[in-house]
Design a protein that fits this description.
The complex is a heterodimer of chains A (323) and B (111). With 323 residues, chain A is mainly α. Chain A is built from 14 helices and two strands, in the order αααααβαβαααααααα. Chain B has one domain. In chain B, helix 1 runs parallel beside helix 4. The longest helix of chain B has 29 residues. Chain B is elongated, with a radius of gyration of 18 Å. Classes of the chains: A mainly alpha (323), B mainly alpha (111). Chain A: Belongs to the EMC3 family. Chain A: It is a multi-pass membrane protein.
């Protein structure tokens, strides 16, 4: 500790106020302004969001219907659920909602000849360029004019390993690591200004440095490629997605949300002891363990077990609310 | 089973509101961490005291959000109730460091 103070004393270094006025603050100002300009340019370039054509909208909405049914099916009565299940599985199987139902399993041609694909790709490239160019320019500017400047002292010590990174261009062996160069100030700004941008541009802003980093590492297809592209950039086979969604729907079991609702209500308002629900839960667990894998047949054959299951679900929800 | 198990409790939350809530959280945390940084730099905190200051301040803010914004029932507003205490704390640290360094530099390094 004592050695540290001595070190600090020895390195009490005065910086010229002109550096503050002409380097430190301008760099920060320029970075803020460039971020704002970039946001505006991105908004301008993107224009109004492209409208999906009728067929592809139908395709996505068809898939969504399936997942909505799976998630919220318990709010429907049994017959309604079954009817939707039957209808959707059939439609997915036959590919009614596909953009091009006849294409079926025919192998795709060269994707580069598909104008829609090329357009999405160009969009991605354009956005990536917008991200990379300003940062490169600012970094070049700082490197060209201000390399070798000691700009500021970090208020916390760092290990010696950071020296080569933070004091690049400053060939002083013994200087403490917490004195940093202009490039480090640039990086500090790059990451620290994110929340400032969030404040002045709103949360969906396009001045995101993290995205730049991603863009630099995955040059080419960015996350802007659109929902129908797999991570590899190839358009996906929609029929396969529909088939797997169909399987998911078939596996979904129906458990009506209103089953046993009287008991749950009475328990909620304290007219019946809570232990009733627990007993039913136990009964259900016992029943499933006895009957083994044939749960679906059980749920249609023994109403008591279904009631117990619903009660179990209800009890869980109730516990969550009261916690 | 199918690998994509759907949590029945999800039906109780509206995605739009959840997004709006976390946006509000981000907004509060961003401005707060910048202000904390300015305070720390002005006070001339160094080393650990600065970080301790940030985390203490964040804990205080979390408590305020918990008590005032979420009315002590965060599970009504967030999928994971603990998000109130953790979300955005580390993201705010970067801008805290920026403003801390800036003000510390301007006030205590440049005379």
């Amino acid at each position: 500790m004592g050695a540290w103070t001595v070190l600090q004393e020895r390195q009490a270094m005065l910086l010229d106020p002109a550096i503050r006025d002409w380097v430190l603050l301008p760099i920060m100002l320029v970075m803020v302004l460039v971020g704002v300009v970039r946001h505006q340019v991105t908004v301008l370039l993107n224009g109004p969001p492209r409208k999906a054509d009728l067929k592809s909208a139908r395709e996505t909405k068809g898939l969504q219907r399936g997942s909505i049914l799976r998630a919220h099916g318990n709010h429907l009565p049994e017959y309604a659920f079954e009817a939707r299940k039957a209808y959707l599985t059939e439609a997915f199987e036959k590919g009614t909602y596909l953009k091009d139902p006849k294409a079926g399993n025919k192998p795709k041609g060269n994707v580069m000849q598909d104008p829609a694909y090329v357009e999405t790709m160009m969009d991605g490239m354009k956005k990536n360029m917008m991200n990379i160019v300003p940062q490169t320019v600012i970094m070049g500017w700082i490197n060209f004019f201000f390399s070798g400047f000691v700009l500021i002292k970090l208020p916390f010590p760092l290990t010696i390993r950071f020296k080569s990174m933070l004091q690049r261009g400053i060939e002083t062996q013994d200087m403490d690591v917490s004195w940093v160069s202009s490039l480090s100030w640039y990086f500090l700004n790059l990451f620290g200004l994110q929340s400032v941008f969030t404040l002045i541009l709103g949360s969906g802003h396009a001045a995101d440095a993290m995205r730049d980093m991603q863009a630099m590492s995955t040059m080419g297809m960015g996350p802007a490629a659109g929902p129908q592209m797999s991570p590899t950039g190839q358009p996906q086979d929609m029929h396969k997605i529909f088939l797997s969604e169909k399987e998911n729907i078939e596996l979904t079991e129906h458990e009506w949300g209103l089953n046993n609702v009287e008991t749950r209500l009475l328990v909620k308002y304290g007219k019946l002891p809570r232990s009733i629900l627990v007993d039913q839960k136990k009964a259900k667990a016992a029943a499933t363990s006895v009957s083994g894998p044939s749960t679906s047949s059980l749920s249609s054959s023994s109403p008591a077990a279904v009631a117990a299951a619903a009660a179990a679900a209800g009890g869980k929800k109730k516990g969550r609310r009261q916690a | 089973m199918s690998g994509q198990q759907i949590n029945p409790d999800d039906a109780l939350y509206v995605d739009m509101f959840i997004a709006k809530n976390s946006q509000t959280m981000t907004f509060i945390r961003s401005s707060y961490s910048a202000i904390l940084g300015i305070a720390a730099g002005t006070l001339g905190l160094t080393n650990w005291s600065g970080f301790i200051f940030y985390f203490t301040g964040s804990a205080f803010l979390s408590f305020l959000i918990f008590a005032i914004k979420a009315k002590a029932r965060p599970s009504l507003y967030f999928r994971q109730p603990l998000d109130v205490f953790t979300e955005g704390v580390l993201g705010g640290l970067l801008s805290y460091i920026l403003f801390w360094t800036l003000l510390y530099g301007i006030i205590h390094v440049y005379d």
